[in-house]
Amino acid sequence: MRNQIRIFPFPGDLFLLLLVVVSIPFIVVFSLTYPNVILEQGMSHKIFYFHVPVAWVALYGPILASLFSIIYLITKQTKWDNLAYTSTQISFLFALGVLFSGPIWAYSAWGVPWDRTDARLQSFFILCLSLVSYFVLRFLILDGKRKALVSSYLSLLCAMSAVLTWGAIRWIENPGNHPGSVLGKGGMDSDMKLTFWLSILSYHFLFLILFLVAYRNQKILKFRDELRAKQS
């Protein structure tokens, strides 16, 4: 049947779920116990191993959504709009994690939870506003095709905000207190580098499982609406 919804997960889904269940608790404990502590910041520096990996997903999530949106604008197939919406949802969820963890780290490092002169912070705030605007306008527009069309253009705007946020500490001569790229010159000690990349891997597993769940939820809701339309 064309409108079938798969209820039982694929074996790969269960494997990915197992990876998330194992890797996330492991990396939290590992990041708290294994890498050395930066003396100037103390234990609060450990939030780096959560803050930066989550920020990465929050930044490239809108870029992924914009690619789906471009495909939608070309093909006008609803599944691409659903994929863009799903990617934006997960991006916003991870952005909230950044907003929660960032001030904690900033207060220990700078003495203030939010530095208004910092280019990265201000550009990330603009990104969050762009994501909120995406959801607000998508909620207000009732017509499905118009909603998908407007959402696609808003995805492009969010992607531009993400790129500007990424470039804030790279293109601006004095970006503020925010540290430079973790992949820049000087790098990290071996214990920090190992912990950092394990964190990146773990939170990407989390991103993937959340993406699958959210996308399939969209398919189920669409299938429900189609059934209701046929019955009415």
From TrEMBL:
Its main subcellular localisation, reduced to a broad class, is membrane
Residue ranges spanning the membrane: these are 12-34, 54-74, 90-110, 122-141, 153-172, 194-215
Q: Which GO terms describe its molecular function?
A: heme binding; heme transmembrane transporter activity
Matching Pfam families: Cytochrom_C_asm (PF01578)
For the keyword Transmembrane helix, the answer is yes
Alphabetically list the UniProt keywords: Cytochrome c-type biogenesis, Membrane, Transmembrane, Transmembrane helix
Location in or out of the cell: Membrane
Query: Which InterPro entries does the entry link to?
Result: Cyt_c_assembly (IPR002541), Cyt_c_biogenesis_CcmC (IPR003557), Cyt_c_biogenesis_CcsA/CcmC (IPR045062)
Q: Does the keyword Disulfide bond apply?
A: no
- Domain Cytochrome c assembly protein, first and last residues per copy: 19-171
Q: Pull one GO CC term from this UniProt entry.
A: plasma membrane
Biological function: Required for the export of heme to the periplasm for the biogenesis of c-type cytochromes.
The entry assigns this protein to a family as follows:
Belongs to the CcmC/CycZ/HelC family.
What name does the UniProt record give this protein? Heme exporter protein C
